[in-house]
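Researcher: Please predict.
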Amino acid sequence: MCRLLGYLGPPVHLDRLLYKPEHSLIVQSYQPLEMTAGLLNADGFGLGWYHAHQFTDPFTYKNTLPIWNDTNLSQLSRFVESGCVLANVRSATPGLSVDLSNCQPFGHDRILGVHNGFIENFRQTLYRPLRDRLSDEAYEGVQGLTDSEHIFALLRDALRSTPAPSLAEALQNTLELLLEMAQAKCAGVSANLILSDGDHLVASRFASRSEPCSADAQSLPPTPAPTLYWLRDDPLFPNAVLIASEPMFSGDWVTFPERSILTTSRDLDVKILPF
């Protein structure tokens, strides 16, 4: 299980998000408190941010080192400022390599996305069916082997298939398709995602337990989704919304409801939609 961070608000230097909170993303990489699988997030990391003053495609910085071992990040984060940031520290699924192509965030044009979760037994269950559903453009855009990047490729197609879709609509359509495919293969899915186009944050908290395939088998109760929280207009980050896998500091953090999609924009109007 990875740890995620999303920020939307006035431009801030990245070190205010990554280093200064007492339970920052860096601390969560080696001392997470609420992970449901794994002990550390030491299999690389990535940052994505939008220019604070110019309209241009977002920037990313990735490394296969644990985030606490990157000697350049502390200096970089004191220089770079942004009003919209996504970040991820990775705990790799066993069997998947630790390389840059598997590090998040994933991006296309103005869209960035990070994912915490999994597709159960991805290579044996949905790898081939999911790739068969992708358009040529989305298929060719997949550089790595992770379930996370393939979910992002589904999202790319969802954005292309509907005239002027919102990120929230595209995310809902992606999750619906993912759940349908997973159920057909009796596979569990966990999909906490944070997406952005630079002006909006859209996030989901979702999980579906693998179901027995025999017709007479008893269904299992729903499995809890990985934790996800949001915070708005905190004194430490006024006029901003933060989304994080774990609270980064003391404040009025709100737990995402199970199976929900959150959307917000520069006006800080947070809307929660049931999935």
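Model: The longest strand covers residues 3-13.
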